[in-house]
Write a structure and sequence with these properties.
With about 170 residues, the chain is of the alpha+beta class. The chain has 4 helices and 9 strands; from the N terminus they run ααββαββββββαβ. Helices cover about 30% and strands about 30% of the residues. The strands form 2 sheets. Strands 6-5-8-3-2-1-9 form a 7-stranded mixed β-sheet. Strands 4-7 form a two-stranded antiparallel ribbon.
């Protein structure tokens, strides 16, 4: 039977801990990049991208959320949006999508947009205390844009208005 001295045992422990650390980091990275929900704002900015939405009265830079997990998280827990910022929810299939103000800390406007860039519904000044009310579109939409309260008027985001996403 081979006997190990203390230094060999310490080396083996360090190797095992290093391997476990690598496995945990690899799992975190895989989950972070596939769900695009990384729980660290700096890393979220690396795995997500922004897109410019040209509205009738100006441009909005929106963070794109296009995975189930990132759409479920949305703006929850954030403290606010700048006037020219938003969050664009991108769906694979055009349909009816309900939104609520769960865990929201500030009021927003919500705009539903069809595949042609036409606004099919909007809700303005939705307060955090409106939860658990759900706001849903009647006409199919492919995108939903959340912006700071007051942005519907500021950018001319009215029913029937057209926006350009990404140009």
């Amino acid at each position: 039977m081979k006997r190990f001295n203390l230094k060999e045992k310490e080396k083996r422990i360090v190797y095992v801990v290093a391997i476990l650390f690598f496995i945990v980091i690899a799992y975190y990275a895989y989950t972070c990049f596939t769900t695009k929900v990384c729980e660290v704002d700096v890393i979220n900015k690396l795995v997500r991208h922004d897109i410019t939405i040209t509205a009738p009265h100006g441009a909005i830079v929106a963070e794109v959320v296009d995975t189930k997990a990132s759409r479920e998280l949305g703006l929850s827990g954030r403290t606010g949006l700048h006037v020219n910022e938003g969050m664009l929810f991108v769906f694979d299939v055009s349909g009816k999508y309900g939104f609520w103000m769960k865990d929201m800390l500030f009021p927003i406007d919500i705009v539903w947009i069809n595949q042609n860039g036409v606004i099919v519904k909007s809700e303005s000044n939705l307060e955090a205390n409106s939860y658990p009310n759900t706001f849903i579109n009647d006409v199919d939409a492919s995108y939903v844009l959340e912006v700071a309260s007051g942005s519907i008027e500021r950018y001319g985001l009215y029913l029937g208005s057209k926006v350009i996403i990404g140009e």
